[in-house]
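Long-time lurker, first post. I've been practising inverse folding by hand and with some scripts of my own, and I keep getting stuck on stretches where the structure tokens seem ambiguous. Below is the full token string for one chain I'm working on. Before anyone asks, I'm not after the true native sequence, just a reasonable design that respects the backbone. If someone could post their per-position residues I'd love to compare against what I wrote down in my notebook.
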């Protein structure tokens, strides 16, 4: 008898809480604060859904869903950090450290940007 399992768990956006609050750390486009849910799929059919624990940041451009703890600082006038400094640097999607925009690889962990 041969048995194989085709399925898995993925996260899907449930509701947008605040649109365009920050920039995506992968592609640099606008990202929104969202509520998400985990979805168990068997043979590509959703079987069971349950809510995520905390809000997350979701990028519509590259579909990156980032946990709340990795949310970059918002770009507004009330921030202590100059917004020009934030726009001139990126964050690594693996280790979340600040990286210069001209780098193609993270100097800290070596992952591609």
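-- Answer (accepted) --
I ran through it position by position. Result:
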């Amino acid at each position: 008898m041969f048995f194989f399992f085709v399925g898995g768990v993925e996260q899907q956006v449930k509701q947008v809480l605040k649109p365009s609050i920050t920039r995506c750390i992968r592609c640099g486009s606008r990202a929104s604060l969202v509520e998400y849910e985990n979805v168990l799929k068997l043979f590509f059919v959703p079987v069971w859904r349950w809510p995520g624990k905390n809000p997350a940041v979701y990028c519509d451009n590259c579909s990156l869903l980032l946990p709340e703890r990795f949310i970059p600082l918002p770009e507004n006038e009330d921030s202590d950090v100059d917004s020009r400094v934030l726009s001139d640097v990126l964050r690594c999607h693996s280790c979340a450290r600040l990286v210069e925009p001209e780098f193609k690889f993270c100097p800290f962990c070596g992952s591609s940007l």
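A couple of notes from the structure itself: The radius of gyration is 17 Å. The longest strand covers residues 7-23. Happy to go over any region you disagree with.
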